[in-house]
Amino acid sequence: MATIRFISSDVDKTITMPVPSGDRQTLLAIAQDHGVPILFNCDSGDCSACLVNVETVSDEKTGFAPLTDKEKYLLTSMVFLTDADVEDAEAGRVAPESRLACQYRPGGEDIVVTFENGLA
Ligand code: FES
Questions:
Q1: Does residue 56 form part of some domain?
Q2: What is the model's pLDDT at position 75?
């Protein structure tokens, strides 16, 4: 089982879900399925409206979902990630803290997701 805790100024919700064995849902889809209001616009990795901060709290054996090409491009362009952050993530050393919820597909890691939804 994997645990995802969503935190914003008006949300603190923890969900537990089975580790996906096939296709993985995006974090945005998981949030929507559980009534967590993460902002989004394009839903295709092009706008950054769904930017979230992710703390990976499971041990390193669990690993973490890799950055997508769109995350690498957009998050380094906007300086939310450095090239060194991307290198560390690709080597599996350090989970990136900035993610795009519409691109990130959690793979079973326990995470704490912090976001601003503009509703507060
Ligand atoms: S909604 Fe546009 S990048 Fe995720």
A1: yes
A2: 97
Q: How far is the CA of 94 from the centre of ligand 1 (A)?
A: 23
**Rounded distance between C-alpha atoms, residue 103 and residue 38, angstroms:** 13
Select from 29, 31, 40, 4 the least CA-distant residue to 19. 4
116 CA → ligand 1 middle, Å: 14
Q: Which residue has the tokens 């979902």?
A: 65
Three-state secondary structure call for residue 37: coil
- Model pLDDT for residues 65-82, shown as the tens digit of each residue: 999 999 999 999 999 999
Q: 71 alpha carbon to ligand 1 midpoint, in Å?
A: 10
**CATH number of domain containing 30:** 3.10.20.30
How do beta strands 51-56 and 98-100 pair?
antiparallel
